[in-house]
Design a protein that fits this description.
Layout (H helix, E strand, L loop, with lengths): L7 E5 L4 H12 L3 E6 L2 H11 L2 E4 L5 H15 L4 E4 L14 H29 L2 E6 L12 H21 L4 E8 L14 H6 L3 H12 L9 E4 L7
Parallel strand pairs: 1-2, 1-4, 2-3, 4-5, 5-6, 6-7
Helix pairs in contact: 1-7, 3-4, 4-5
Length: 235
Amino acid sequence: MTDLTDQVAIVTGASRGIGRAIALLLALQGAKVVAVARTAEELEELNAKTQGLAIPADVADEADAQHIVNETLSRYGRLDMLICNAGVGSFGLLEHFEAAEWDQMFAVNVKGTFLLCKAVVPHFKAQGRGHIVGIASDVSRRTFEHGTAYGATKYAQDALLGSLRKEVRPHGIKVSTIYPGMVDTYFNDSKPGSAAAEKTHLRPSDVAQAVRYVLEAPAHVVVDELMLHPVSQEW
């Protein structure tokens, strides 16, 4: 089993929901967490608990993506893990979507993953190891009504990670994709904690435990893909 103590992990979308749960759990395992999100105030509150590094940034901005990696290496002198969790989503009939909404979803969900991976891969190649974990969605593997835009971003993100996995495996780099089903979070402006969601949805901590499982796999093992659903959700 891989010991996460003192390993350095960048976690995007860390201020709330799944990202926050991942950051807290990794810190609990002894990792040094670099928490990334757009909201500085929420990041600082999280950083008080993780005692790591908080970087307010836009993952869809190339300069910000490189800044995140540079700041991490400057602070810790190493980088071991990238957790691409930042994501946005909205739903509705295709003809009702504005082009700006479409662009924003692709910018965060796909371009953000691309830019952070692009920034870390050269470093991982140079050291001959590293682990990228992408938090995708079960809709990376299915379609549904009102999901034309969001589903398209998740199919694209899944393809990106799958192709990257083949590119970097010969260099000792692992790429894992996690596909959660329904999760009780702030996603799509919802408010977590309702009685109904508690009975029917995953918790952010469930996804965080999946990330921990993937990262703690022995050095010779890579969990390529991991899908998880609440028992109540049909698949």
